Amino acid sequence: MQFAKRTALIKDSSTLSITAKAKEMRDKGLDVVTFAGGEPDFNTPDYINESAIAAIRDGFTKYTAAAGTPELRRAVADKLARDNGLHYKPSQIVVGNGGKHCLANIFLALLNDGDEVLIPAPYWLSYPQMVYLAGGEPVIVYTKAENGFKVQPEELEAAVTEKTKIIVLNSPSNPTGMIYTRAELESVAAFAKKHNIYIISDEVYEKLIYDEGFAHISIASLNEDAYNRTIMVNALSKTYAMTGWRIGYLACAQELADVITNIQSHMTSNPNSIAQKVNKRGGKEMREILFKSELNKFGTFKDFLAELLAEGEVDSNEVYALAEEQGIPRRTLERAKSEIGARSVQRADGWIWTMD
């Protein structure tokens, strides 16, 4: 008996491998900081937890509409209009079991065997694996440090072929943290229009911006053409410390939203009903709770690590540091050996990123 050939193309998640290794080290009594998963250190706010408990007690535990409850989709549409200048009907919104699930649905809906997807590197490790599972071919477009690891028009032109179907854009970026400016987004949008390809805009980290002078812009907000060819993906996992709740959403043209809804209806039926009930607050009430104190902690920690790197105190083998930053959850970094053994690396202009 043989497995499907596509499974041979899929690598293990280095994020999960690193997370498991960190847990193993903690179980041995070591004080470890893991930079693997994109997960806030703070807990889901109590009022959200209480809403979930109330939903369970009220019996909101049945199937919902495949694309999410009408009230949640209206709340998402309101959020996109208010925060991003994007105007979608609730019917153009599909709520999934996390942003990752939304991305997988998109690739399944758009890719035929052999279709190519442009993925600027460094990139989030799951993009190529999802493309493979959908029958596509990931094409890695290597960026340069001198450009802030932002993909340039000439780099895209060198990578595009007649088989190119999609370009994946992630801003703010995981793992580099870079943010595309309006002018840079306009260049990407013009490229996509020229070659008639879709844009997947992964905006999960839109609220995690620490420095003044930077702002998140949704590429779909630039003009009508960009709007029509972009599939915007977001989630509440990062901003609201709800990684385990598994609620993400996408917004796109109506015809594509209908196709994705049909796919999801046969894959998972619907998103978690209980999580949908509490997340309906995301449109109005939750927007006032951006956890600015926690974001400030992230920013302080970022600056602390930058200082360590500048002083040469961090190398590829060991980390020697004492983390005693005020307001940051206590995670002392003491001689934590890099035993995580990432299965592969990404290279961009001489930089090495230990991810799949």
What's this entry about, in short?
It is built from 11 helices and 9 strands. The protein has 356 residues and is of the alpha/beta class. Strands 1-7-6-5-4-2-3 form a 7-stranded mixed β-sheet, with helices on both faces.
Folded structure, characterized:
36% of the residues lie in helices and 12% in strands. The protein is of the alpha/beta class and 356 residues long. It folds into two domains: 5-42 and 292-353, no CATH class; 48-288, Type I PLP-dependent aspartate aminotransferase-like (Major domain) (Aspartate Aminotransferase, domain 2, 3-Layer(aba) Sandwich), CATH 3.40.640.10. The strands form two sheets. A seven-stranded mixed sheet has the order 1-7-6-5-4-2-3, sandwiched between helices. The protein has a two-stranded antiparallel sheet with strand order 8-9. Residues 282-290 and 313-356 have low confidence and may be disordered.
In terms of topology, how is this protein built?
Blueprint: H1 14-27, H2 46-57, H3 70-84, E1 93-96, H4 99-110, E2 116-121, H5 126-133, E3 137-142, H6 153-159, E4 164-170, H7 182-195, E5 198-202, H8 224-229, E6 230-235, E7 248-251, H9 254-267, H10 273-279, H11 292-310, E8 346-348, E9 351-353
Parallel strand pairs: 2-3, 2-4, 4-5, 5-6
Antiparallel strand pairs: 1-7, 6-7, 8-9
Helix pairs in contact: 2-10, 4-5, 4-9
Descriptive labels:
356 residues, alpha/beta, Aspartate Aminotransferase, domain 2, two-stranded antiparallel ribbon, 11 helices, 12% strand, globular
Task: List how many beta strands DSSP finds.
Answer: 9
Structural class: alpha/beta
Strand order of the largest sheet: 1-7-6-5-4-2-3
In terms of DSSP E residues, the strand content is 5-15%
Low-pLDDT sequence parts: 282-290, 313-356
What's the Cα radius of gyration? Answer: 21 Å
Overall pLDDT score = 82
Distance, first to last CA: 28 Å
Topology order in helix (H) and strand (E) letters: HHHEHEHEHEHEHEEHHHEE
Q: Helical segment tally? A: 11
Question: What is the global morphology?
Answer: globular
CATH architecture heading of the largest domain: 3-Layer(aba) Sandwich
Largest beta-sheet details: 7 strands, mixed
Quaternary state of this entry equals single chain
